[in-house]
Each structure stands twice: as C-alpha cells, then as structure tokens.
Amino acid sequence: QVPLVESGGGLVQPGESLRLTCVLSGRIASLYSVTWYRQGQGKEREWVARIGPGGLTDYADSVKGRFTISRDDAKNSIYLKMNSLKPDDTAVYYCKGGWPGSAWGQGTQVSVSS
C-alpha cells in the first residue's frame, strides 16, 4: 500500500478554522487526483472535496464556500482549508489517492464544539 498521512485536526469552536494536510509517499502527487473524505460518529463516509492533477476542484454542497482544497506538488502535499467550521463538520477526515488500489490512511480527527 502507498502511505498517505493526514494531520492537522484538532478541537475548535464553531466559526473557527483548521487546515488539514495530506502527505503522499511513494507516488508523484502531481499525477493523481486526491479526495478528502470524512466520517462522523455513526454516519457513513462521505467525500467532501476533490482536486485533480490539473488543479480542477469539486466540493460537496455541505462544504462549498467554506472549504478550499489545494495542492503543493513540490511537497507531495494536499491541503484542506476549513473555514467557518460547524459542529456538523465533526468527523475523522481522510485523504485518498486516485490511483488503483489506493488505501485509507489513519485519518485526522476534527472536533467542532463550544
């Protein structure tokens, strides 16, 4: 499996911001799309944002206008900037590569609570 390591989660209050980082190893990140997913407690996993190798992006309606996905190919990294966080954003966030057989990483916990 190709390692993908997520980081940057934490506990914040509603309205605050976080930036998540996904670092890829064993792949040239610029060649692949990468998708951020999340899974809340007792909920199904859902995709939240995707970025293609050419930089095209797409977002789930629930995060559109608040989250921004970006990439730094020199660092083999993909970022998810999350603004105006809500309690409903509480979840474990995962990144997943667009190559065949891409595996799930450990994820990073985001908790939004007052």
Can you describe this structure?
The chain contains no helices and 10 strands. The mean pLDDT is 94. Strand 7 (67-72) and strand 8 form a beta hairpin. The chain starts with a strand and ends with a strand. Helices cover 0% and strands 46% of the residues. It has strands at 4-7, 10-12, 18-24, 34-39, 46-51, 57-59, 67-72, 77-82, 91-97, 108-112. With 114 residues, the protein is an all-beta fold. Strands 2-10-9-4-5-6 form a 6-stranded mixed β-sheet, with no helix packed on it. A 4-stranded antiparallel β-sheet has the order 1-3-8-7, with no helix packed on it.
Summarize the structure.
The protein is an all-beta fold and 114 residues long. The chain has no helices and 10 strands.
Q: Which features does this protein show?
A:
114 residues, mainly beta, six-stranded mixed β-sheet, four-stranded antiparallel β-sheet, globular
User: From the alpha-carbon coordinates, what is the Rg to the nearest angstrom?
Assistant: 13 Å
Shape: globular
Distance N to C terminus? 38 Å
Number of helices: 0
Q: Helices, strands, pairings?
A:
Blueprint: E1 4-7, E2 10-12, E3 18-24, E4 34-39, E5 46-51, E6 57-59, E7 67-72, E8 77-82, E9 91-97, E10 108-112
Parallel strand pairs: 2-10
Antiparallel strand pairs: 1-3, 3-8, 4-5, 4-9, 5-6, 7-8, 9-10
